[in-house]
Amino acid sequence: MLQFYLNDQLVRPTLRAGSTLLDYVRYHQHLTGTKIGCREGDCGACTMLVGELQPDGAVRYQSMTSCLTPLGNAHGRHIVTVEGISQPAGLTPVQEAIVAEGGTQCGFCTPGFVMSLTGHCLGGQATDEAGRAAIDGNICRCTGYKSLERATDRLTAQLLERDAAPERLAWLVEQGFVPAYFQQMPAQLAELRAETVADVAARTGGQLTEPNGTETTVASYLLGGGTDLLVQRADDVLAAEVQLLYGHADRCFIRETPDGRISLGAATTVEDLRGSELMQRRFPRLRQHLKLVSSTPIRNMATVAGNFVNASPIGDLTIFFLALDAELTLQDAAGRTRQLPLRELYRGYKQLNRQPDEQLVEISFRPPAAHEVFNFEKVSKRTHLDIASVNSAARLRVADGRIQEAHLSGGGVGPTPLYLRRTSAFLAGKDLNPDTLRAANEVAQQEISPIGDARGTEAYKRLLLRQLLFAHFLEHFPAQFALQELV
Amino acid sequence: MSSTTNHVGKAPSRVEGPAKVTGAAKYSAEFNVPDLVYGYVVSSPIAKGKILKIHADKVLAIPGVLQVFSHENVPGLAWFDKSYKDDVAPGGSPFRPLHDDEVKFSMQPVALVVADTFELARYAASILDIEYKESTHETDIEAKRDDGHEPGKGKTGYKPPVRRGNANKGLAKAEQHIKQEYIHGAQHHNPMELFGATVHYHPNGKLTIYDKTQGVYNCQQYVTKVFGLSKEQARVVNLYMGGGFGAGLRPQYELFLSVLAALELKRSVRLSLTRQQMFSFGHRPHTLQTVEMGTGPDGALLGLKHSALHETSRFEEYTENVVNWSGMLYKCPDVHLNYQVAALDVYTPLDMRAPGAATGSFALEVAMDEMAYAAGLDPLEFRRRNYAEEDQNENKPFSSKKLREAYDEGARRFGWDKRPMAPRATKEGNMLVGWGVAGGVWDASMQKAAAKATITADGKLTVSSAAGENGTGTYTIMTQIAAETLGLPMEAVTFKLGDTTLPEAPVQGGSWTAASVGSAVKSTCEALGEKLLKLAQKLGDSPLKGAKFEDVEFVNGQIRLRQDHDQAVVLRDVLQTSGEREIEADSSAMPNPLTMQKYSMHSHNVVFVEVKVDEELGTVHVSRVLNVVAAGRILNQKTARSQVLGSIVWGISMALMEETVMDHRFGRYMNHNYAEYHVPVNADIRDIEVVFVEEEDPHVNPLGVKGIGEVGLLGVAAAITNAVYHATGKRVRQLPIYLDKLL
Ligand SMILES: Cc1cc2nc3c(=O)[nH]c(=O)nc-3n(C[C@H](O)[C@H](O)[C@H](O)COP(=O)(O)OP(=O)(O)OC[C@H]3O[C@@H](n4cnc5c(N)ncnc54)[C@H](O)[C@@H]3O)c2cc1C
Ligand code: FES
Ligand code: FES
């Protein structure tokens, strides 16, 4: 049975797992503090906090856009809306800071900002940058960004005190950031977990749909974070049977295998990937790279498998992992598995070498070795909440002024995410110098086939790919090159 | 003792702030009334044609679906166009939802599905089968360059462009001369809150209509005329509005549809539009403009021509003042302004923040920059040389104009004197750096407004007027004005708004709310003050005996003699000894026709911008914006600043991101969602600053305010464009400045 805590109440909605958390809260619980601005993950007005019990017994709260959160993904968790943190005694320090700095105007985006910042106070780092990053998925049309930024910065000093306190959550409660019931949540979720772990069906869908529903089940979906599926086909998913993968223990892991490779569970979220120490060790600039992927709440939801399977030609993670030559493990309904290189997953625009019942379970890749470098670049029109015009990744092995091996990928320059096979092959064995790069660009330009659209003309995209190709080398070999000599 | 109750001009936080940060503030689609049913609008996929058949049977067969409303079953309603005209309707014949089988624009509402739950209504709407017969549409203003016409009377506030002298002759005398075309595409207001309404159907058949609107009275008169209801039958309420920017000036179709459904079904109905549908009821029109100007040897403007052509719908003639500003912002003897519209198969455009001026001043101010370069003058110096001491359009002095002071203050703070004249002169790392300047002028208007004030024996004051709060700070500034007028702490005052049971206020637009409603609140509180003085004078040995109203002041909870502050009575004592439970007054304020005749009343601004352009990727970063505003008296530093900070972000957005792109093959906007209709995120906005110059204006209205919601947008996009030129040497004349244009 689907059950979770909504603020301080245990709820057991009888709705379908593919309906949205937002609609449940607003239309069925009549809690209207959470707003609706777009229903597509693009504005943050619907931001809620989702708390999940961690192995260490603490609850980790993350912001999510509830308009795209499948209700099923709330299962076993603590969902917090603005009503769940507001207290009769007075405003929370977050609310106080927003009012004092003039950070609310029409007020419609405000509860979303309040939730993002409350999430930041619960678990974020006590720096201005971390605070600002926490509101990267909230749009304010009025637009109080600078005032909200001041409100955010105001919190930093208080959070330093938090870090000095012996017990973080107790301190947060004492200071009024969250109500006292938050202190019960770890125990309550632990209790709930005992029930939910047994309730495997709930995690894998099936039984979550009403047994004698009047509508016929039209389809069955594998559902990760829902950030793609609920934008593209909310009505279908609502009526369908869904198999929930988000947060599934067997699908969420990041580990090193004995052969030195790294293996990821398919439902690993972008933010978990970004936060992984193992990943950060192997990709020193990982946090910067993945910061460019949409926004914090979306990264908290979006899974790696979802990114691969939605097959967008500009999927950021797809481009990232194409350059790493990742290997996928697919499993069909009968439990049979097979391996497939990510490069071979794409057949044509949004077409995959995958059977509809095949689930992506694991992703494995060889991380850059000590003598190798990796780089990821993305150009988009706005800093966050925007998919790329063009993106590109590169993994390079260079020794003694010579490129031993190169793997390049490019997105937004063809009908599918591209592994730039010919360009990569061309570079292997060549001397690292401007002539080589110029020639490699010539090859790349023949390998790509961008089309003009809202993200730029064909010519512009070709130009961007060239710049990004060069940028990989400029980033890692700044002593050898200056852009001026390349163009 | 000095005053602790002089709130006006200070920076108190919003009084409704707590309601907003806790989620307690209720917006229109959030009133939980009993027994609600939900509507979902079905929009036309075609831009022009006829609806042949609505196959509602399958949808109606779904349990829980209550009705499918369309032209096939909508009852006979008001017959004449005038019943559908709202207070701010342009000329023509307003669109009537579900009126007949004709489709006039893409995304036109063609049916309303009503069901027990929201999810069901949405699902049912998604499978409703409608047959259309498409006919050829025209949606491209570029194809109408030669088909424009001068509009007729236009809507309220529209002034046909005036001409003076002979621009051709003036231009013929010029030594330097420029002529260029400037273009921007359509833009949509896109407030955060989706348009929506909750109609509470009471057992006696009366309706309480919570609608997203900038004018509850405007909606009430629309609904009563269209549906033949009395005012008592249709109360319209809007306590909070999640942003308007003009989108809520006119009654939108969620109002018509939800009221229709409530009346027909005799049920309470809620209806909310989708983000996609937010692109279906009005926009800043796609506009083509040409500016030509010439200067004499000293840089004086000798002649100026400015013409504009923009789209309107087939059924209404939308007008805005695009070119008039060019006749008044700078001094010029010979001016020719020309303004035309052309009808297309689109919905009627709609006033959007600083309508007309945001458009016209973009063209004018980029042209001024081009002219300055042609004349070899610093762009700010060039503006100073052509400073307009009076309004030449109207041949009147300004009631006040501190633009020169704004130039000085801005130039000093920005460090303008260090700007090299030549483009491409400054580099920082691999970034080209450029500085630009531009500005604007906007009407300081006022409308008739009424208010009511009641003070109770415990000293609590309630003031009300059916104004709107769409983020501008109405609750707060009215509380400040009322509290100060009667010498009370702000906590003792409650301001109520947005309800047709309250005294009438104009629609919330044109930056006139502060002036109009503020003046009404002030005069109402003064009327109440006079009554209180009379009561005070009835007290035994009152120190105020014989004093006239002008002789006293209300300060710190007392009424005291201006000349002798020790001669005072405590307001609460007056109330308590008077024996009255409450005392009430009402009053109204309206513009003074005499001063209007004598003076031209306007606010002004000037914007300084720094951009950094990455030439390798074609990306533009607006690294610094300084907006200096001369807008009369500033009632609340905090809320006024927020308005201008917001305007700056709007300007950056207009310059670099915002455009609704039409796919002319289908006559449909392509990027009708937040993912593709880009507005900036926080990380896109760097250093932005607002300065208000002191501007006392004894004429404009009793409060000396000019309104602050729109003027701050002017000049921003032009200054960015000018800065991009200064950085790169590339002159962009079409907004937004997409990356490709710089490569
Ligand atoms: C506002 C917004 C911004 C975005 N910005 C970006 C961006 O900057 N960069 C970017 O790359 N993407 C972006 N996206 C797209 C999207 O978030 C990502 O592609 C995300 O990784 C999808 O993951 P998900 O788990 O949410 O997918 P879901 O919606 O759950 O699923 C997507 C598809 O994958 C299938 N699927 C999910 N898991 C599996 C599995 N284990 N095996 C097989 N099939 C599976 C689903 O059936 C579905 O077809 C954005 C989306 C939104 C809404
Ligand atoms: S409603 Fe906009 S992100 Fe959810
Ligand atoms: S306050 Fe209006 S959208 Fe942010």
From TrEMBL, chain A:
InterPro entries (UniProt xref): 2Fe-2S-bd, 2Fe-2S-bd_dom_sf, 2Fe-2S_ferredoxin-like_sf, 2Fe-2S_ferredoxin-type, 2Fe2S_fd_BS, Ald_Oxase/xanthine_DH-like, Beta-grasp_dom_sf, CO_DH_flav_C
Alphabetical list of Pfam families matching this protein: CO_deh_flav_C, FAD_binding_5, Fer2, Fer2_2
Gene3D superfamilies found in the cross-reference section: 3.10.20.30, 3.30.465.10, [2Fe-2S]-binding domain (1.10.150.120), CO dehydrogenase flavoprotein, C-terminal domain (3.30.390.50)
Keywords: FAD, Flavoprotein, Iron, Metal-binding, Oxidoreductase
Gene Ontology molecular function, alphabetical: 2 iron, 2 sulfur cluster binding; FAD binding; iron ion binding; oxidoreductase activity
PROSITE patterns (UniProt xref): 2FE2S_FER_1 (PS00197), 2FE2S_FER_2 (PS51085), FAD_PCMH (PS51387)
Identification of the protein by name: 2Fe-2S iron-sulfur cluster binding domain-containing protein
UniProtKB/TrEMBL annotation, chain B:
Region named Disordered: 139-165
Protein name per its UniProtKB record: Xanthine dehydrogenase family protein molybdopterin-binding subunit
Biased composition (Basic and acidic residues): 139-153
Signal peptide: none
Source domain of life: Bacteria
Gene3D superfamilies assigned to the protein according to its UniProt record, in alphabetical order: Aldehyde oxidase/xanthine dehydrogenase, a/b hammerhead, Aldehyde oxidase/xanthine dehydrogenase, molybdopterin binding domain
Lineage: Bacteria, Pseudomonadati, Bacteroidota, Cytophagia, Cytophagales
Pfam families: Ald_Xan_dh_C (PF01315), MoCoBD_1 (PF02738), MoCoBD_2 (PF20256)
GO molecular function, one term: oxidoreductase activity
SUPFAM superfamilies (UniProt xref): CO dehydrogenase molybdoprotein N-domain-like (SSF54665), Molybdenum cofactor-binding domain (SSF56003)
